[in-house]
Write a structure and sequence with these properties.
InterPro entries: Peptidase_S8/S53_dom, Peptidase_S8/S53_dom_sf, Peptidase_S8_His-AS, Peptidase_S8_subtilisin-like, Peptidase_S8_subtilisin-rel. With 387 residues, this protein is α/β, with parallel strands linked by helices. Helices cover 28% and strands 21% of the residues. The protein folds into 2 domains: 166 residues, Peptidase S8/S53 domain (Rossmann fold); 154 residues, no CATH class.
Length: 387
Amino acid sequence: MEHTLVPKQETTASDFLKLYPQYDGRNVIVAIFDTGVDPGAPGLQWTPDGRPKIIDVVDATVCHPFRLPVMLTRLHMHRAQISIGDVDMTTVLKAKDGKLKISPKTTWTLNPDWNAVNDSFRVGYKRGYEFYPQPLVARLKEAHKAEWVKSQRPFINATQRALAEWTRSHDPKTLCLADIDARNELLARLAVLEDSVKTFDDPGPVYDCVAFFDGSYWRAAVDATGTGDFSTANAMANFCVAQEFAKLSDESQLNYALNVYDNGDVLSIVCDAGSHGTHVAGIVAAYHAEDPVNNGVAPGAQIVSVKIGDSRLGATETGVGICRGILAVLQHKCDVVNMSFGEHAARPNYGRPIEMIQELVEKHGVMFVASVGNDGPALGSIKSPGG
């Protein structure tokens, strides 16, 4: 008996694979249009024949519209429209003695193993909370505020004790100006401390970023330590080159990958906007060699993660994001698109994204599978884009 949340028996997927084990998704590439897929998730590392499970991770999010091309063949991978994880890397600096002079008071130390053409490096920075998933931001802010409150509590307690001691030891009828000033100082100190607790706002980390061309590939690194020390940092190529990813911190547990666009002008930090995309990818194609009961329905398939869920919009997709995602489908010659995403629409099956999806299916032979919703209001109510 299978005890997983994937109903492979009820849908007869298990029986199908037993009859036709070669039809396990091998040689099929599935694009997951969703919140993004965690590149470090168990079961999403390798296919049964040893190929990388996730071929590429792409951030297609964008919050503002731009002119959409008439035909898919006119789409180009440019980043003029800022995605949530994009970093401006147009600043170019020359390295000297393995260091970059960022400002009169700031110097970055580079990894001596990095071989940049002409010692030329691109630099930029990115606020973490701009691309973190909203639930993660909320969790970190809550934890950091709790730490701040805990750190301020001894000072608040000490001030309150001092104020109580002042009140106990002074007769209001015999106060001098110095006594009043001392009391006012304690009251002001207590007010500032209590206000610092009430108004505490965690701005989050700021990540320094560096990118360079090594003669073959663009590579980039993110300083997760906040020290400007890249001496031991790993410069990762675009994810599709070597499927490299890293974790920003133990506290965040947020995995990320990097893509460089526009000849180094833009660095894309790609992380998921929520767990939904990873969940969907697991249903589709997870492969657990030691625990096959947890496999997806097509464990031999490979995945292209296309992040259309924008953290700035509560992980909601935009039409522009869908259109940009279609480019990744064509670039990687995906066979299937799975979009378990959507919402109610005033005019279903209408608009430029729908036209581009139809063109993708009819002219390029890609199968597009979309959800139709499961939240009513009626038993048969459906949502866009599936209805």
